[in-house]
Every structure is written in C-alpha cells, then in structure tokens.
Amino acid sequence: MTERTRTQIKALTDKDAIRILALLVDSTGHLPDPTHLRHTETQLDHAAANPDPTDGIDPNAAPATPGDLARATLTYLAPTHSDTISRAIALPTDTTRFDPTTLAVGALILIALQTEVDITRTDNGHWKLRIHKHRMRDSTLGNLLGKLIATYRPPGQ
To answer: What is the top-level taxon of the source organism (predicted)?
Structure first.
C-alpha cells in the first residue's frame, strides 16, 4: 500500500469510509441484497457474544464506530486492492447507490474478509466467527477483528 492510499483512507469521513467499503465489496461481485446483509449482521451479533479465546483476537479490544471499522478494513485490504480503493475514493459521492446509514457495516466487513473469516453454526446451534489465520494478536487483522467483536458484543459481556 502506498503512503498516499494510507493517507486517503485515514482522511475519509465515516460515511465515505462505509461507502468506499461497499464499493470495494461490490467490485468483487460479492455485495448481497440488503436483507442478506442484515441477516449476516444478526449472525455477527450472536457470534460476537461468544468469541473463541484461542483465535488470537484481543477479547478486551475497545468498540469502534462503523466508520472506524470500515477504515480499518480498507487499510487491511489496501495492499491487495489499492487501485480499486483509490478509484472508489475519487468517485463523486452517490448516496443513491449506497446510503452508508443503511448499510450493515459488520456484514460488509465479513464479506470483504471472507478469505480470512466466516460465520459458522456450532453443533449446539450458536453462531461463531471462524478465523482462518491464527496467532495474529499483534496484526492488523487481529486488531480489526478484536474491534469488530467488541463493537458487536452485547453490553455487559
């Protein structure tokens, strides 16, 4: 990732970061309909309530805003998608296609990270985040997933 791309991502407003993430997911052909996004977001809510302490994610991470999560995801994906991200940033804002206030950000993140993370149902019927990479406590991905879980974890847990 170039320093220019990193600077562009950091400068994005929350709404623009979410919009750029949606455009990136859409460019890969994986953006589902809003109903599917909400369903995935519900699964994330349930999975965040029972994170696996052995997966290398900090269970004490602080929650983040949806915009912060989107920027962190874009930063993580930038080394392999910097051209797409830069082009999406350069596009004029079009809220008729993706209204950032109605997008399920957690679901977008899971779709964007589908090669690293997915949601599976356990034998007892609970949802669980399954991480494909291990020993990542100090990595960008580990930090991102820690914030994601902390953001979606039910209060008091």
So the answer is: Bacteria
